[in-house]
């Protein structure tokens, strides 16, 4: 079994890492303070081909596999996991549109989506439906011209910031078979947004409720077929779970690198603190856990790329393991910085805050356990 990256994969990682270190890392703390990511960053990201990482080459995208995409998100999250995770959301939406939208809709919107002149948000969660996503209430009533939307989406990254919203709405009966997917452009009458949420982490991502009050969209903004929207939404989640895991991995690796440097410089009792065996053991534990997480993540991505029958199970396992490992590592890195780790100037506390939400979104880690257990019981 060959665990090495190909030359092309190494080049993808290096390109993403270099861009992140030059164009994101120096500004990440300021963007967090501002509560937003400058819009002019995204066309620069799009110029690298990162606006449609796994959009088909025939559709104008990069046509990368899921393993390749995790390399991009791992590399970018070494600069800022908040920015990298927002790009993951856009790419999940872009893939849904490439896979299921009709030719007319794709011809109209995809060039700007791929160049990141149009930034996308994903709207599934509602105030009363989180893990039970199929219980969503936002309704789309058919009209002669298209659909009229009424309802509210919650915890939307990019709410009030993005240029368009890929939304799961109810067009039929209760349950998953009554859900469809629609594309709603910013500025559509009846589309509005709640106040910006005050969050523990991911503070550079504007987050708000997305509200529909007799919001009218044309029939051509239906994505795919009525009643298939929940299926579309779920199909994107395996890859999203890999991406958010990669964001945890990259940020934790940065924290460990920073900690190694700090410990070589910090003196106590006449020597640098990296010479104390008890602390060396803690460094070794973190290295072991991160390497295990990286291997597990890439195995799950390989299974998704090869359409293995147990791919969903492995994506769930990797998401649970890697996001919890990432949070554990950055917390330990803060501890090894002592009081300095608690200060914003050192950057570690931001990573602790940013990574905590990774155990909640793209399916909570409790739901990941449910998926794994169900698979085990079905195959006993």
Task: Identify the strand order in the major beta sheet.
Answer: 1-4-5-8
The major sheet is characterized as: 4 strands, mixed
Q: Distance between the terminal alpha carbons, to the nearest Å? A: 27 Å
Strand content: 5-15%
Calculate Rg over CA atoms.
21 Å
Helix content: 40-55%
Shape: globular
Helix-strand category: alpha+beta
Give the total of beta strands: 10
Q: Which blocks of ≥5 consecutive residues have pLDDT under 50?
A: none
Overall mean pLDDT stands at 96
Order of helices and strands: HHHHHHEEEEEEEEHHEEHHHH
Count of DSSP H/I helices: 12
Folded structure, characterized:
The chain has 380 residues and is α+β, with helices and mostly antiparallel strands. Helix content is 50%, strand content 14%. The protein has helices spanning 7-23, 28-34, 41-47, 66-77, 81-100, 103-115, 229-235, 237-265, 277-305, 311-336, 348-356, 365-378; strands at residues 120-123, 139-142, 146-157, 164-170, 179-185, 191-193, 207-218, 222-223, 267-268, 271-272. Strand 2 and strand 3 (146-157) form a beta hairpin. Helix 4 (66-77) runs antiparallel to helix 5 and helix 10 packs antiparallel against helix 11. The chain starts with 6 loop residues before the first helix and ends with a helix.
């Amino acid at each position: 079994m060959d665990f090495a990256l190909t030359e092309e994969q190494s080049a993808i990682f290096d390109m993403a890492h270099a861009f992140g270190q030059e164009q994101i890392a120096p500004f990440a703390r300021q963007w967090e303070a501002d509560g937003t990511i400058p819009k002019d960053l995204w066309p620069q990201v799009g110029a690298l081909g990162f606006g449609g990482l796994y959009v088909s080459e025939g559709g104008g995208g990069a046509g990368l596999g899921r393993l390749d995409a995790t390399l991009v998100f791992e590399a970018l999250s070494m600069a800022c996991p908040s920015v990298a995770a927002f790009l993951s959301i856009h790419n999940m939406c872009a893939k849904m549109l490439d896979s299921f939208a009709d030719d007319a809709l794709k011809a109209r919107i995809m060039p700007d989506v791929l160049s990141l002149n149009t930034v996308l948000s994903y709207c599934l969660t509602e105030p009363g439906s989180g893990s039970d996503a199929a219980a969503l209430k936002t309704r789309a009533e058919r009209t002669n011209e298209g659909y009229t939307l009424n309802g509210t989406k919650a915890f939307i990254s990019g709410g009030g910031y993005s240029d368009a919203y890929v939304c799961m709405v109810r067009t039929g009966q209760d349950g998953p078979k009554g859900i469809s997917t629609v594309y709603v452009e910013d500025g559509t009458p009846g589309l509005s947004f709640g106040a910006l949420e005050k969050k523990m982490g991911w503070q550079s991502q504007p987050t708000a409720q997305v509200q529909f009050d007799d919001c009218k969209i044309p029939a051509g903004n239906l994505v795919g077929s009525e009643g298939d929207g929940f299926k579309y939404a779920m199909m994107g989640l395996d890859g999203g779970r890999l991406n958010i895991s990669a964001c945890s991995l990259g940020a934790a690796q940065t924290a460990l690198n920073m900690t190694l440097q700090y410990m070589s410089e910090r003196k106590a009792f006449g020597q640098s603190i990296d010479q104390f065996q008890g602390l060396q053991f803690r460094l070794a534990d973190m290295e072991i856990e991160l390497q295990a997480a990286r291997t597990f993540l890439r195995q799950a991505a390989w299974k998704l790329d090869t359409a293995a029958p147990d791919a969903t199970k492995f994506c769930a396992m990797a998401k649970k393991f890697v996001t919890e490992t990432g949070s554990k590592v950055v917390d330990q890195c803060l501890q090894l910085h002592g009081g300095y780790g608690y200060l914003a100037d050192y950057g570690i506390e931001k990573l602790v805050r940013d990574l905590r939400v990774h155990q909640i979104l793209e399916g909570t880690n409790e739901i990941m356990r449910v998926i794994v257990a169900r698979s085990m019981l079905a195959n006993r």
